[in-house]
Amino acid sequence: MTTPLRLGIAGLGTVGTGVVKIVRQKANLLAERAGRPVVITAVSARSRDKDRGVNIKDYAWEDDPVALAQRDDVDVFVELMGGSDGPAKAATKAAIAAGKDVVTANKALLAHHGQALAEAAEAAGKVIRFEAAVAGGIPVIKALTEGLAGNEITRVMGVMNGTCNYILTRMQSAGLPYAEVFEEANQLGYLEADPTLDVGGIDAGHKLSLLAAIAFGTQVDFDAVELEGIERITIDDIHQAADMGYRIKLLGVAQQTGRGLEQRMSPCLVPDTSPLGQLEGGTNMCVLEGDAVEQIVLRGPGAGEGPTASAVMGDVMDIARGFRLPTFGQPATSLAKAKSAHSVTPAPYYLRMALEDKPGALAKIATVLGESGVSIDRMRQYQHDGDTAPVLIVTHKVTRADLNQALEAMATLDVMRDPPVALRIETV
Amino acid sequence: MTTPLRLGIAGLGTVGTGVVKIVRQKANLLAERAGRPVVITAVSARSRDKDRGVNIKDYAWEDDPVALAQRDDVDVFVELMGGSDGPAKAATKAAIAAGKDVVTANKALLAHHGQALAEAAEAAGKVIRFEAAVAGGIPVIKALTEGLAGNEITRVMGVMNGTCNYILTRMQSAGLPYAEVFEEANQLGYLEADPTLDVGGIDAGHKLSLLAAIAFGTQVDFDAVELEGIERITIDDIHQAADMGYRIKLLGVAQQTGRGLEQRMSPCLVPDTSPLGQLEGGTNMCVLEGDAVEQIVLRGPGAGEGPTASAVMGDVMDIARGFRLPTFGQPATSLAKAKSAHSVTPAPYYLRMALEDKPGALAKIATVLGESGVSIDRMRQYQHDGDTAPVLIVTHKVTRADLNQALEAMATLDVMRDPPVALRIETV
To answer: Mapping DSSP to helix (H, G, I), strand (E, B) and coil, where does residue B328 land?
Structure first.
């Protein structure tokens, strides 16, 4: 087949510009690999005249991404605008209705509307690909959907928000408090306009919900992701975890349990010698576990012009080569509605609390834990900070439900300042 | 499409048995994911009656793999016999001639005959897939050929022989000499019948030559791989490397240089904090570098029933889904014959030598190095071992050609016992 594959690109920010560069600069390489030319015919963005360092004058211009999505000279609508609703959603729907394939980097869109969009696309015989939406340049969707297609997936884990990992590793390496590193990250432009998307775990949660759907053949269910951000992690937590041989990571975990599908995105302790523990800075990592393959670990840049454009182009090249797969690896109509289970898999937990410096304070805590069936593996009391005693407890394995019961009981004790911080210690 | 995809499996050792188990136990999952059933119709192996823990009575039996490859009820010939020539080659050729697609785990076959087989397959409109031939369960061929298809690949590295990595890490962790750990590995059944395939770097070299062909769009050229085994690595090398913050790995590196394609499989020093440096035991790792994606690291089991069968099934599922790609990612006839360059990329080197304990011995070495243009970054002389002084030198960056000249000159010195061991320090 030598008919060119014609792209219409909506959104010319960092990623869109990166895609334009690759298509312009590597025309021969792409044609050789795909067996046909890959070209851009039309683009759309907020500003036509902004200097992006690439020439877009050769391409037709559309102010409206919906109009771009409907153009006759576009085969693949490449959606790089972002946002779960608004123009991205409207244009993606329009593209499918107009019989276009779709490549998108938009995790929010798919986390919220993935099932409906996939059903629409498949009814129209069109594909939606979204490698760039999860873990930047790492071809994790492909690994999971295709490379591991012979596996029953047992667990998927990931550090998939580079900003959070930057903040946590920078706190550790520089010994700086959360607020200061947060501000640093802000100055460096690492944070989304609404930083809660990053530090609240929402962005990473979107990604996890997409991986879970693919891994377990279930409908995307972002609302079922237990979300916890990194805002309450202190430099003391980081030091104390390190003392015990752990690192704190904003870790996503999805696994099938006897009681349903568990999806968690929360700060966890992982062994400092594990690949996850050793992940520094903005790098992302996905851990895929299957009954046949055991464990595969993928590591790479989670963001940036080149890596994200690389992922977009991987999808484009698949389409150019005629690889057509349902959005989530199997027909959308065959995806089960998962029963969601909230942290039913037991794990040891790290608990950090501040107790009033009164006789018997520690005993009260230990008693409440014991009464709730939570047994203590290790306990440390640190030097008083004024009239408060920082106390650290590592529990034996416990379910989150049992732990929550203990935490509630502890909150009623008069010796307890602030609610305790509880972080799961994940077996990786 | 609901026509079943029919497999004929030649070779029922560990991997073949693993594939049979997956196809039998996951019929529904595979059908859902592929959109059609995947079935086995016929098998072939050395012994029909051996107890393999799976029931093969449902399948037609062929004593001769060539006959299996030619059966009318086989769509995909799955070659899991091994060996670069003999029955594996004959049956693969027969399969292509009979219009079958081929899935193989046979690195030796493709390293030696990949170009001819690929040309034959493509002329017949058939595909050859070989994910299981490189790095076991890691979907690295797929990542490189498809996921990174928008990249100009700049370098590919890999630790791809689990046995060598087991030996090297076991030497380090247990403080045991090479010979002893080699024997251990032998007892554990980790070594090939001809152990040179493992410890001589040949098996890993086969894999590197396949990765290089895909990465750089060149014809497989195993003969151009500079091969060096791990047989001369001593426990002292391992300790001394560790002292300086390095680990020794049997590392494959392929990169395009201004003077041609460099392919090396040799023991190298890598930083102990890098993902490669931290790789323990039989686990494999591939590092893929591209101009857009920067660096992707893939880690996973390099061998074993489940992981290798997982890779085979990834290929089978691609074929079931109708994904058809030339063997090396672009048409075999378009693959360039690479000009091969031997270690032209300069690097620092670790040199270990034994000098006679005579006045001026060290000065002679330093002089020869200086005269050959090799400058010294660090030098250590260790406590005498009888009348021999172990000396360790780390050079500044030097090409292997310049270093070899220095090594030759050093070999003529009367103070030099045995030829020096020279290990490259690779930037990862």
So the answer is: coil
Structure tokens of B395? 């050079």
Q: In B, which residues are within 8 Å of A37 by CB distance?
A: none
Nearest chain A Cα to B19, which residue? A150
The helix, strand and coil proportions of chain A, stated in percent and rounded to the nearest 5, come to 40, 25, 35
Reply yes or no on whether the pLDDT at B371 is more than 80: yes
Which of these, B142, B310, B319, B141, lies nearest to A148 by C-alpha position?
Answer: B310
**Over pLDDT 70: what percentage of chain A?**
100
pLDDT for the residue numbered B342:
86
Placement of tokens 């089978």 in the chain: B316
State the residue for tokens 């107890």. Answer: B51
| Number of structural domains in chain B | 3
Q: Which residues of A touch B5 (CB under 8 A)?
A: none
CATH of the domain at B265: 3.30.360.10
- Please say if the pLDDT value at position B338 is more than 80: yes
Residues of B annotated in the binding site, as ranges?
10-17, 107, 192
Q: Does B14 touch chain A (CB under 8 A)?
A: no
Q: Are residues B72 and B153 in the same domain?
A: no
Residues of B in contact with A215 (CB under 8 A): none
Average the pLDDT over B74-79 and give the result: 98
Question: Are residue B77 and residue B152 in the same domain, yes or no?
Answer: no
Say if B318 is an interface residue toward chain A (CB within 8 Å): yes
Contact between B97 and B123 under an 8 Å Cβ cutoff? The reply is no
Q: What is each CA distance from B98 to B40, B102, B256, in whole angstroms?
A: 18, 11, 37
Give yes or no for residue A157 having a pLDDT over 90: yes
Separation CA B218–CA B239 (nearest Å): 39
Structure tokens at A389: 């005693």
d(CA A155, CA B33) in angstroms, rounded, equals 18
- How many CB atoms are located within 10 Å of the residue B326 CB? 21
My answer on whether A397 and A379 are in the same domain is: yes
In the predicted model, what is the mean pLDDT of chain B? 95
Cα torsion angle, A260, A265, A270, A272, sign = positive
CA A307 to chain centre: 16
pLDDT band with cut points at 50, 70 and 90 for residue A359: confident
Identify the pLDDT of residue A195.
94
Do the bridges between strand A153-159 and strand A246-257 make them parallel or antiparallel, or are there none, so unpaired? antiparallel
Whether the pLDDT of residue B343 is over 90: the answer is: no
Domain CATH code at residue A392? 3.30.70.260
A171 in the same domain as A103: no
Tell me which residue in A147, A148, A310 faces B293 most closely, judged by beta carbons.
A310
Q: With contact defined as beta carbons under 8 Å apart, do B240 and B392 qualify?
A: yes
* CA-based nearest distance A330→chain B, Å: 5
CATH of residue B97: 3.40.50.720
Q: Which residues of B sit in the known binding site for NADPH?
A: 107
State both tokens at A276: 């996850």
For residues B415 and B355, the answer to whether their CB atoms sit within 8 Å is yes
* B interface test, pick of A14, A15, A39, A151 with most B CB neighbours within 10 Å: A151
Distance, in Å, from the CA atom of B206 to the CA atom of B47, rounded to the nearest integer, reads 28
Residues A204 and A262 in one domain: yes
Residues of A in contact with B322 (CB under 8 A): 322-324
In terms of residue numbers, what domain contains B284?
140-301
Say if residue B385's pLDDT is above 80: no
Q: Do A304 and B294 touch (CB under 8 A)?
A: yes
pLDDT at A358: 84
Q: What's the CA gap between B125 and A371, in Å, rounded?
A: 70
Mean pLDDT score, A81-92:
96
B391: which residues sit within 8 A by CB, 6+ positions away?
B352, B353, B354, B355, B362, B365, B379, B380, B381, B382
What integer is the mean pLDDT of B147-155? 98
Q: Is B372 domain-assigned? A: yes
